[in-house]
Design a protein that fits this description.
This protein is α/β, with parallel strands linked by helices. It is 43% helix and 9% strand. The chain has a 6-stranded mixed beta sheet, with helices on both faces. Strand 5 and strand 6 form a beta hairpin. Helix 1 packs antiparallel against helix 6. It is globular and about 45 Å long. The structure holds iron/sulfur cluster (SF4). Iron/sulfur cluster binds next to helix 7.
Length: 267
């Protein structure tokens, strides 16, 4: 992206003048993860706690045959998306169905190579039926734009498809009931990279109670497809704690460089 434009987007997410200051050294784990054949130092402990998280270098991913982003979906794929959407919107598998206004399936490009995953719908999302709307959604859009990704080019979903009352944390049984929907979204989408935003999404996807700060700066893997997964802050948290926007920017740059590396490996 052209420098002036990127600065404009960075200002929009509140990272002012980042190029003029002395940038802090990237976290050690980031440097380690960027070294080929090096295992990030924290990965081994995460592997013990979370079987779905593995070092990128040790994982043999099944080959993915990718359609071009502008290619139309096959009739079969379209029908699978539609039936999955209908299932989610009429789901009663956990108690949250009785308090939600509507299910929030997810939104975006069904050929997206980036899958953005949050925690659960909030009040506005529950009302509008779309994830990441309102102020947090606007900040997420600005964060994505800062790395050259318009919202229309990614797919955005949550771990939970129904809003927990009063935005409380999801309960384990709700996550267990809802996660198969996300797995099916991933199987249909086959994203190149997942970006988990916020502690709750990261901890539930990686089956760990490790602090978000320790999960940042490395590549995890999720699910049967071993989809690479990177963790960053939730935009709602960044609105409350703007001092951490700089760290979020480091995460986004790490995600972008990881994505580029993965894309180059697949060519
Ligand atoms: S949260 Fe998930 S499992 Fe629970 S009712 Fe909503 S869609 Fe179904």
């Amino acid at each position: 992206m052209e420098r002036g434009r990127r600065l404009e987007y960075l200002r929009a997410i509140g990272v002012e003048g980042w190029e003029r200051r002395n940038m802090p050294a990237p976290p050690a784990a980031v440097e380690a993860a960027q070294l080929p054949m090096e295992v990030p130092p924290e990965t081994s402990s995460i592997q013990r706690q979370a079987p779905v998280s593995k070092s990128i270098e040790r994982v043999v991913r099944p080959p993915v045959v990718r359609a071009r982003p502008d290619e139309p979906l096959s009739a079969d794929a379209q029908s699978q998306w539609e039936s999955l959407t209908a299932e989610v919107l009429s789901c009663t598998k956990c108690a949250l169905h009785s308090t939600r206004t509507q299910g929030v399936f997810g939104v975006g490009n069904r050929r997206a190579e980036w899958l953005i995953i949050g925690e659960a719908p909030g009040a506005e999302e529950d009302r509008r039926g779309e994830p990441f709307v309102g102020r947090a959604g606007q900040l997420l859009n600005a964060m994505l734009k800062a790395i050259g990704l318009p919202r229309e080019q990614v797919f955005i979903a949550n771990v939970l498809k129904s809003r927990p009352p009063n935005n409380r944390d999801p309960k384990p049984d709700e996550v267990a009931a809802c996660l198969p929907y996300l797995m099916r979204q991933i199987a249909l989408l086959q994203p190149r990279l997942m970006l988990a935003v916020g502690r709750i999404a990261a901890q539930n996807l990686l089956a760990t109670d490790m602090a978000l700060g320790r999960l940042r700066g490395q590549v995890h893997h999720f699910g049967e497809l071993n989809t690479p997964l990177i963790v960053t802050y939730h935009p709602a948290y960044l609105l409350r704690s703007p001092a951490d926007k700089r760290k979020a920017w480091e995460d986004l740059k790490f995600a972008r460089s990881t994505f580029q590396r993965l894309a180059a490996q697949e060519q």
